[in-house]
Amino acid sequence: MHSERDSETTFEEDSQPNDEVVPYSDDETEDELDDQGPAVEPEQNRVNREAEETRETLRKDCTWQVKANDRSFHEQPQFMNTRFFCIKESKYANNAIKTYKYNAFSFLPMNLFEQFKRAANFYFLILLILQAIPEISTLAWYTTLVPLLVVLGITAIKDLVDDVARHKMDNEINNRTCEVIKDGRFKVAKWKEIQVGDVIRLKKNDFIPADILLLSSSEPNSLCYVETAELDGETNLKFKMALEITHQYLQRENSLTTFDGFIECEEPNNRLDKFTGTLFWRNTSFPLDADKVLLRGCVIRNTDFCHGLVIFAGADTKIMKNSGKTRFKRTKIDYLMNYMVYTIFVVLILVSAGLAIGHAYWEAQVGNYSWYLYDGEDYTPSYRGFLNFWGYIIILNTMVPISLYVSVEVIRLGQSYFINWDLQMYYPEKDTPAKARTTTLNEQLGQIHYVFSDKTGTLTQNIMTFKKCCINGQIYGDHRDASQNSHSKIEQVDFSWNTFADGKLAFYDHYLIEQIQSGKESEVRQFFFLLAVCHTVMVDRMDGQLNYQAASPDEGALVSAARNFGFAFLARTQNTITVSELGTERTYDVLAILDFNSDRKRMSIIVRTPEGNIRLYCKGADTVIYERLHQMNPTKQETQDALDVFASETLRTLCLCYKEIEEKEYEEWNKKFMAASVVSSNRDEALDKVYEEIEKDLILLGATAIEDKLQDGVPETISKLAKADIKIWMLTGDKKETAENIGFACELLTEDTTICYGEDINALLHTRMENQRNRGGVYAKFVPSVHEPFFPPGENRALIITGSWLNEILLEKKTKRSKILKLKFPRTEEERRMRTQSKRHLEARKEQRQKNFVDLACECSAVICCRVTPKQKAMVVDLVKRYKKAITLAIGDGANDVNMIKTAHIGVGISGQEGMQAVMSSDYSFAQFRYLQRLLLVHGRWSYIRMCKFLRYFFYKNFAFTLVHFWYSFFNGYSAQTAYEDWFITLYNVLYSSLPVLLMGLLDQDVSDKLSLRFPALYIVGQRDLLFNYKKFFVSLVHGILTSMILFFIPLGAYLQTVGQDGEAPSDYQSFAVTIASALIITVNFQIGLDTSYWTFVNAFSIFGSIALYFGIMFDFHSAGIHVLFPSAFQFTGTASNALRQPYIWLTIILTVAVGLLPVVATRFLSMTIWPSESDKIQKHRKRLKAEEQWKGRQQVFRRGMSSRRSAYAFSHQRGYADLISSGRSIRKKRSPLDAIIADGTAEYRRTVDS
Fold first, then answer.
1. 554 given a catalytic annotation
2. Which residues sit in the known binding site for Mg(2+)?
3. Which pLDDT tens digit goes with each residue over 595-654?
4. Which member of 454, 554, 1004, 1025 is catalytic?
5. I need a surface site. Which of 693, 729, 903, 1103 has the fewest CB within 10 A?
6. To which H or E segment does residue 1241 belong?
7. pTM exceeds cut of 0.85
8. Distance of CA 855 to the CA centre of its chain
């Protein structure tokens, strides 16, 4: 691995974006981004200023008002908004979620309105009206009405089924229940009945129905543990804590009933991590922040019950605000198909106009002088030509096939069911099948260029497992027996000797157990003791079992590992920690916890042993630990080598060390620590400085290696997609080191990848902008552009960029603007012009910079964006869509991925986890990332090929059918006379030629699913639009024109000067129409046989069945019986039986079909022989190709001394629970009687207010 840095470009440290922080929230105001005030100011001034600012801020920003237990308050006139004319509605949303489109009354009018918004449907409605005018139409009205009703009916039924499913899903969510205070007591109510201001009770494992302020809970100090999997995909628990005042007074039902608190807070927004507000109660105000708010979509865990006040409901909740705008998605082929339909419209009008002119000329030259053609109307030739124009519009309307859209919908629906029914995408562990949640995007799955993936819960399982460790320079964790002999096959370590073992750890190194039990090396026991005490994990005993709650899954994995190896963390109080050491229970005094943060990258704990010794234990990232080690550390190099080994195996590493502290040294340090703890400003910085003083001269114990478990098959899937020329970008809110490590684990990054970081590409982009400015100014896009690569070709590069650098590079960074300037308006026209020009200049510069960034990123084989917000994820996807015109797919599992999923052309949700928000917003869902390869390389590719074949054939068969009228016009005076029987025109697209093409669109496949996965390069044809484009369309057009000429002119030549066997001439108009129609049906049905790659009984039956159906219906319609019943509708009486008993006619039909198909057969043969495609080659040799070979992971070659890569230890994204533990607020105490609680609480409360 190499790192590119531009040594000539330097950046000021202060202006550098911070890689560790997630950038500003999506809705952050400019006031929030303003610089802080001076660092040092008199205390009283600061208090006065803060009070004034708080009052001003509340007055300005906190306009959302909530009154507890008072629904009428929120219905006051000032809270009403005018929705429609004089209809008013409360600005407070109700808690019902509505995703459906129709109800029982609106379905028919709204659905018809939406269907007639489609150009083709509206066009056929106009045609139907025209056909009702006798002067214009030579075609019966039912020829258009019947197909139109079929199309509208099928589409309406499909829309109805989809909407019924949405109704069911909405009802399922809206009818969930919880307890709400009504009429002075808690009553069970449905979610949809909850309103802002209600006080509700939630129990363990309940979903939170709205955004609520936590008032109290069953836990000490009203702590409440929540799982946020539905928001961010993370399964580790986070804690929230109520205000002390509400914890004291709002535990009982009667006190909650009389609670009349008033809240002023920010308006509803999408900031998941931020909340600002104030609670006014008992003539006092209490500040509120995000730690006191439970968000909708989270789940209550390890808390028996909690009470809360609803602040935001329904559409106002943060999870709904984060869902982004729902976009109506259409495929590339949809847009192309529409343009082609418009092209056919233009051709139709031009042809009709030409034939109308021909009729006007013919009338002037021939018609007016032919007495036998007089129809009793004295119209001028030009007027007759005008009428004939509309007549030809009606006759040639089948050039724009009415059944095209409904056929496309049926095919897509069928393909969606195939995805749903695919057992190879079914996940039995969670009983989760794949689900096509939309039926309109299937073929686009075969055209994907870029995949944007979340990390946590999508690529990884978010399950950390202890894999290996290095203690005193010795690596443990390989397959070894107790005598240090390596074995490829060995049984798991049996932890049954340990009563506290949880039985979940799979470990195979029996030698480590031997070392622990023998006690030969004290460092081994010291190592696991450190893991058991140096953490901020909370413990809870349930039915005699220990349950750990950790701020991050890494920390939980390490404490669980220590527990299994015999050092079990049992309990803690505010200043003690109890550990079982190989069965012996010992309690240690906790003197200080030096908590983790993203700058320190380490945490420490200072404990006093029962013998009175003081010791500091520390764990952290190797980069920070090695700087603080004592010079005399004999195992330093061996541990470094072990870290390199662990890193090469993409394990998350962490160094452990300790230090003996003298009593005097501790006393001196503790004074500084206590002083820093009460500093009023910059407390964190002061504490960090004090921590630095004690965390030095450490003695290295060893290192741990944790595996962030990938989902099964992730590296294989990424490898297959890369071979299909699909680029994969990973977008995550996690830290840079963690994201990079996962990149290596899933083989998105490899050892020979050159990694570029934000600062590298910032310099490159700056240089490119300068060059572009020098060449053509910032408006360089108006100058013919020459694509210059950013990197020399041939090298494998990857880009890793953080959210802060992304804002910096894309000029998205919000800057502070002077408040004076905000009020300054341009005074003169010149100033206004200059300001507009400046704004335009900045926009053009920003656009060019963004385009350059996309060009640079797309030159990399992989891109990893870390520490990004949900809005930035969507922005990255949108940039690639906008500047690369590429088809994108986004895949994720949490609410923070919803915006990205909705922005991409196709959104995929990972289901089967707790979080379902991403699935609800997705187009496709399944349980494991590995199913993506089958979705794209099999279903996507097949869908694309089927749809392209279907469209090419559909246009061909309609051109061949319709243009016969065009050639016939030259022989009937351009009189808009039809060449076929009316009923044949009506049923041609509905019955005679519909089934074979539908089945080809549903069942055809060029190669099997196994071969599709084995040869991912087959996918590339879809990315390049090779199977359906304007060229292919015009080929179909020309093919249709030639077929129509053959269908018309061969029978015409055969009918000229012909006498039948019985001496009668079969060359009447009706016999001619039957001959052409019969030849047409056989030709187009045999043509689809030539286009079919995958033959089944159903295909064969449909082709020959359609031909048989045609002849059966034709003989019925030409019978005397039906003519007697409907004489005006069935006028071809006896034609079929008379014409088709002549062998001459059959020879004509056979000749016509042969001439129409033999050139196609010859062309196909030459094409497959001389210019075979990839799929042709695979089809030819498929019998020789074995079943799909097993993919083998790339073997890692470890080279000692190479530049190592390691993830900094991911404690969590925020500080841990240290403050909570130190304050003692998390420790359970025996409950006092209520009176005592109130008395003590009131006294304490008064003291707090007075101070």
1. no
2. 454, 456, 893, 897
3. 887 778 889 999 999 999 999 999 998 888 999 999 888 889 999 999 888 887 878 889
4. 454
5. 693
6. helix 1234-1250
7. no
8. 23
